[in-house]
Amino acid sequence: MRYLLASKLVLILALFLLQGLVFAQDFPAAPNPPRLVNDFTGTLSAAEVDQLEQKLLAYSDSTSTQVSIVLLASVGVYEISDYAFQLGEQWGIGGKGKDNGILILAAMNDRKVFIATGRGMEGAIPDALAKRIVNNLILPNFKTEAYYLGLDEATTMIFKLASGEYQADELMSDGEDNPILGILFILFFIFIFVVLPIIKNRKDNNNHMGGRGGGIDFWTTLLLANVLGGSGRGSSGGSFGDFSSGGGSFGGFGGGSFGGGGAGGSW
Amino acid sequence: MKKILIPVAMLALLGILIYSKAVGTYNQFVQLEEGINGEWAEVQTQYQRRTDLIPNLVSTVKGYAEFEQETLTGVVEARSKATSVQIDPTNLTPEKLAEFQQAQDQLSGALSRLLVTVEKYPDLKANQNFLELQAQLEGTENRIAVARRNFNESVKGYNSALRIFPNNLFAGLYGFAAKGYFEAVAGADKAPTVQF
User: Fold this and answer.
1) A262 inside 8 A of chain B by CB
2) Phi first, then psi: what are they for A70, rounded to 5°?
3) How far A133 CA sits from the closest chain B CA (Å)?
4) DSSP string, B27-84
5) Interface of chain B against chain A, CB under 8 Å?
6) A258 contact residues in B (CB cutoff 8 A)
7) Sorting pLDDT into bands at 50, 70 and 90, what band is A6?
8) Which of A74, A132, A176, A225 lies 20 to 30 Å from A211, alpha-carbon distance?
9) How large is the ipTM?
10) Long-range contacts of A172-177 (CB under 8 A, 24+ apart)
């Protein structure tokens, strides 16, 4: 009986593992730590991958548009376009709601490449332009095995086309954060200078000869402490944000969606 | 008096339970159905876009006098047939959807035959206008594929919710019926291979 149970457990475990394997074979899991350039084939040298990563990262930081490069051995029975859309969707390349992601997918053994544009990028890079990038910049270079050069030129062209479509998140989120902080401060001051005195006055009415001076001292101290603490916290929060976004590592994909835009080719 | 009160209270409680479950189920189906309607609108938009591209394609190709006429008329006929089959979202039954898909797939077939024929005409293949149309057509086929997959996923969620145990009792009561899928007919899951 016990043996049976154990064998069943093993079977179930094996099934789970197998399922994971099947999934892993169809679509690679999103890279962890997140990276924009993912070469699963070893076609590019480490230095080339790094250079592309830095280039794409700088662009993502300044415009919030996420351009990702994935090199695979083969997409199997999938159409490369279909595979690119599904991979982009699963990884969530681009910001959520803005869908400003672009995936350059190359299947090295199939000798096929596809540029998939997120829903939000279809206006900046229509299919016809994506096709031209593939035909004029990627394919000729890939034919001569100049893979890095092709990807470098293609991304530069994409940057040119997409520039101005989206602004960086940071500028906007700073503008949004400050009013909230401001309102909080105003509420805090109203509480200190209006509500508390009213409460205290009531108390005073009950007790005509109260130790008033001591009370004020106490509240003033508290207020000063809070103001100092508050401003201190605010500035440290800001510098933290700056550090994490500019520190040279990619923060992760944002949940963008792909609707079938883009074009591809074969070399 | 008290003896009656307890069963009545229990009945009332049961009534409230069933009622809230019924309302919850109804609302769930309404939400799922709205999701499907949205996906269906996207499917139709993309098919419409393809339909709109065809007159341009035909007139571009027509300029080449020697071009086979029967291939062209095949496309035009398939197009008019496809536009005649329209489904409104409240009637997405499996039969209706199969009919819609068949008409659209015929158009896909006619289009891919046309694009294969173009292979024989180097002038046409070099025509800038034609190349643009070809890129747009490819893009539309890709978008159709994505829209169809999203639609199928929504329908799958809806249909399986419909068949789960307590829901199936209510669903029949409200008149919610299973909806159709896009089937992957041999070769229809792929865009017509526009390889030149």
Assistant:
1) yes
2) -130, 125
3) 12
4) HHHHHHHHHHHHHHHHHHHHHHHHHHHHHHHHHHHHTSTTS-HHHHHHHHHHHHHHHH
5) 46, 132, 135-136, 138-139, 142-147, 190-191
6) 146
7) low
8) A225
9) 0.73
10) none
What distance, in Å, lies between the first and last C-alpha atoms of chain B? 88
Please tell me the distance from the alpha carbon of residue A196 to that of residue A209, in angstroms, as a whole number. Answer: 18
CA distance A238 to A241: 5
Give the DSSP letter of residue A140: H
Distances (CA, A) of B59 to B46, B65, B75, B111, B130: 21, 11, 12, 14, 10
A27 and A78 in contact (C-beta within 8 Å)?
no
Tokens of A112: 């096929």
| Pairs from A18-24 (Cβ < 8 Å, separation ≥ 24) | none
Residue of B nearest to A117 (CA): B139
- Which residues share a beta bridge with A114? A105, A264
The average pLDDT across A208-220 equals 53
CB pairs under 8 A between A and B: 41
Task: Read off the pTM.
Answer: 0.67
